[in-house]
Task: structure prediction
Amino acid sequence: MALVATGCSAEAQRGFLPGAEDGEEVTNMTERITTLWTGSWIAALVVGLITWGLILWCVAVYRKRRDDDTLPVQLRYHVPLEIMYVILPVLMIGVLYFYTERDTAAIDDISATPDVTVEVVGKQWSWDFNYLDDDVYDTGQHVIDVGEPGNPEQLPTLYLPVDERVEIQLSARDVVHSFWVPAFLYKRDMIPGRPNVFQVVPTHEGVYAGKCAEFCGEFHSGMLFNVAVVSREEYDAHMEELREAGQTGALDSSLDRTQNRGDDNAIPSGEG
Ligand SMILES: [Cu+2]
Result:
């Protein structure tokens, strides 16, 4: 009953993946990823049921009977059976590969012209955001410097305008980090000197948790941020706030991890 009843919930329909509370899609990619995920599970379950069924059937039908000491029929060099052993798994992997490759190509496609480009820089143990189009930046502070670890009020927040194509350029100042927004169903490594780029269209306003997903030192677990998907007006207002706070330009990637903020560290965009 419980299994059947929970099957109707939004969580179950998303394959128990994180997302918006109302069950709506969070980005233009979440539906595709969810379908790949649940489809793969259903395919695996079907294969599992057939395999378990055959095992149980063989155990029951061909069990050793009392007073029967003869060996069962021994099969050797049974070519049709051996061909099946090869072809079936190749076929199954081929189907998984086809859908995975199709969706990965779509998710990794960065050929469109973005509406907004943001450079996200990971550092021990916080985040900097350079909003390249608006020529402003925001900088997060190492959690132990801003009071209570994990307090969402004090975490740096990446603002993104809803329904606009965002290009995110990922890099790191010191060691390898990983940009992970569970609700986006997306994670990508941030490697010093080797930027990773992806595009996404957030489609659902809200605040989502983001975290570093690559163990990067002592306070890795506190390397958190928020993603605020907001209307264009709110986005522009936030850009204005940053400008008024004097946070113009882009943060130089040579900043050390003590993250001194202030105008000294800002250099004109294009060089950051
Ligand atoms: Cu990290």
Notes: The pocket of copper (II) ion is lined by residues 122, 177, 212, 214, 216, 220, 223 (CB under 6 Å). The mean pLDDT is 87. The longest helix spans residues 30-61. The chain has two domains: 19-63+75-107, 116-251.
